[in-house]
């Protein structure tokens, strides 16, 4: 697709990664969050990530960091999104927050705009119901860290059109990524399996079956996983894990998705993982 304007809502870990990957691919990006302080932190994070990438790609021709950053406009107001051709929403995994964001996007954005929810569990069909044209709404579940992960779970809602899927696939292709299309059920494929695994691994620690490091070591050394489930939980953020498991529990009314009490206790204690320096491991 032509290098159009892409709006990115949310300047957290995922939003920063999405904005960076888009800008590196030549897109003009509008990165939105609620305060200039958060946006300044996001700009610093993107600059640091780009410098880190350059260290690992020495000898390769690379664009200058200022040129990439120039493609990102940092905003605290939805008004500029009237010019967006595509919007990727990355706010926290709570329905009430996502609902407010999508209702505002529906008011501001142009009729042709495509809306992608970067969610790990929330129904795309339900989000589509907030838009005047639900055929333009789909899910794009990026993996963390976004610039380094080349595969994206693309979710087709009940009303999502073939044209919308094609537009999303073309955008991903321009970013050097492949989209795998799945149908809309809470958790989709990746998190319907992953969140159960992580939640059960936390039960293992709670029940004193094994220490966190040993649980992860078994998955790395016995199954060849690059990361164990608790390392993965720290990377994603334990608060995000809890929100996702809660959505699955509510959606399916199935006890197998009951959040582990230790997970809830850690989130209540502010132990979120890498994002704030302490989870199952110290960072």
Structure notes:
The chain has about 280 residues and is an alpha/beta fold. It has two domains: about 180 residues, NAD(P)-binding Rossmann-like Domain (Rossmann fold, 3-Layer(aba) Sandwich); about 80 residues, N-(1-d-carboxylethyl)-l-norvaline Dehydrogenase, domain 2 (Orthogonal Bundle), CATH 1.10.1040. The chain is built from eleven helices and eight strands. It has an eight-stranded mixed β-sheet with strand order 3-2-1-4-5-6-7-8, with helices on both faces. Strand 4, helix 4 and strand 5 form a beta-alpha-beta unit. The longest helix has 21 residues. The radius of gyration is 19 Å and the shape is globular. The termini are far apart. The model has no long low-confidence stretch (mean pLDDT about 95). Keywords: NAD, Oxidoreductase. One of its GO terms (molecular function) is oxidoreductase activity, acting on the CH-OH group of donors, NAD or NADP as acceptor. Pathway: Lipid metabolism; butanoate metabolism. Belongs to the 3-hydroxyacyl-CoA dehydrogenase family. This is 3-hydroxybutyryl-CoA dehydrogenase.
């Amino acid at each position: 697709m032509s290098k159009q304007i892409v709006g990115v809502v949310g300047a957290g870990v995922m939003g920063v990664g999405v904005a960076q990957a888009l800008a590196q691919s030549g897109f003009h990006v509008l990165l939105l969050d609620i305060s200039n302080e958060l946006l300044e932190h996001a700009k610093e994070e993107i600059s640091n990530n780009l410098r880190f990438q350059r260290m690992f790609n020495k000898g390769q021709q690379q664009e200058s960091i200022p040129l990439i950053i120039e493609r990102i406009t940092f905003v605290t107001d939805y008004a500029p999104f009237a010019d967006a051709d595509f919007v990727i929403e990355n706010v926290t995994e709570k329905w009430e927050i996502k609902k407010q964001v999508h209702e505002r996007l529906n008011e501001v954005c142009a009729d042709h705009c495509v809306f992608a929810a970067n969610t790990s569990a929330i129904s795309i069909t339900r989000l589509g119901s907030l838009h005047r044209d639900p055929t333009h709404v789909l899910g794009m579940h990026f993996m963390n860290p976004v610039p380094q992960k080349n595969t994206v779970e693309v979710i087709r809602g009940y009303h999502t059109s073939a044209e919308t899927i094609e537009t999303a696939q073309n955008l991903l292709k321009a970013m050097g990524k492949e989209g795998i299309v799945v149908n809309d059920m809470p958790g989709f494929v990746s998190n319907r399996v992953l969140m159960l695994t992580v939640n059960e691994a936390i039960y293992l620690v709670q029940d004193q079956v094994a220490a966190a490091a040993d649980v992860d070591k078994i998955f790395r050394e016995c199954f060849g996983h690059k990361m164990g489930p608790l390392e993965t939980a720290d990377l994603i953020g334990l608060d995000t894990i809890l929100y996702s498991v809660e959505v699955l529990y509510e959606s399916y009314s199935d006890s197998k998705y009951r959040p582990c009490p230790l997970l809830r206790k850690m989130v209540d204690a502010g132990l979120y993982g890498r994002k704030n320096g302490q989870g199952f491991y110290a960072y």
